[in-house]
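Notes from the 1:1 (GR / supervisor)

We went over the backlog. Supervisor wanted to see one worked example end to end before approving the batch request, so GR pasted a single chain during the call. The sequence is below; no edits were made to it. Supervisor asked that the structure be written out right there so they could see what the output format looks like.
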Amino acid sequence: MSEKHLQTGDVLPPYSGKLRVFAMRFCPYAERTVLTLNAKNIPYDLVFINLDQKPEWIFNFSPKGTVPALEYEPGKALFDSNIINVYLDEKYPEIPLQASDPLRRAQDKILVESFAPAQSAYYTAAFNAQALEPSMVETYHKGLEGLQKELETRSTKYLHGDEPGWVDYTLWPFLERFEALPLIGKAEFAIDKTKYERLVTYIEAMKNVPAVKSYFLAAETHAKFIESRAKGDANYNMLDTSAVCCMRPRKKKE
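Structure output shown during the call:
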């Protein structure tokens, strides 16, 4: 699979008949859908999009040009990771990822919502050059503390249970990126094992989950992308080895 991100003027690759995900390699929301597909062993194709120079055809699949978008039939697509992932779990029930108990499903959704402020704090810390407000750091750690408390309360290896599920694959992409913050000079966002022992154990376990491992990027890689984006020149193709020798496809002449 090429890691190249298609951009304005690039031709839409032909549809293979598999589900097709339009994504950006460093987008945590797109990663949620990739992990869901991986966990459920559903065949799919990936098309990466340059979000600064979007190809014209992405708006046929996602009205705002956001990712992820899931093409489930030729020319027909869903967008928004939460909508896509619930659809996938219900459409392909062989490996269920949502909790079977309605109350636990509701609790999982509440947990995801309550973690959102920590995610917002991450974006501010990563891409805002201005000095951070102490309240932003507090919000971030409050999210981590809440997640650790939930892990302790549930007393299971993963939030879903003995195996990871929807709630784990929804939260994980941000935890993966959180580890990059100290590498870009944001030491106050470090996940200290002495304070977050249960959470760190969970993070290390998630890294070894097959669905995660096949798409995982190290903190150093995320840090490099964050730095490039913060400078205003996001290096979308930093992982694409084919970009060195291959020219991007051009728009057909009329």
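Supervisor's comment: The chain has eight helices and five strands.
Batch request approved.
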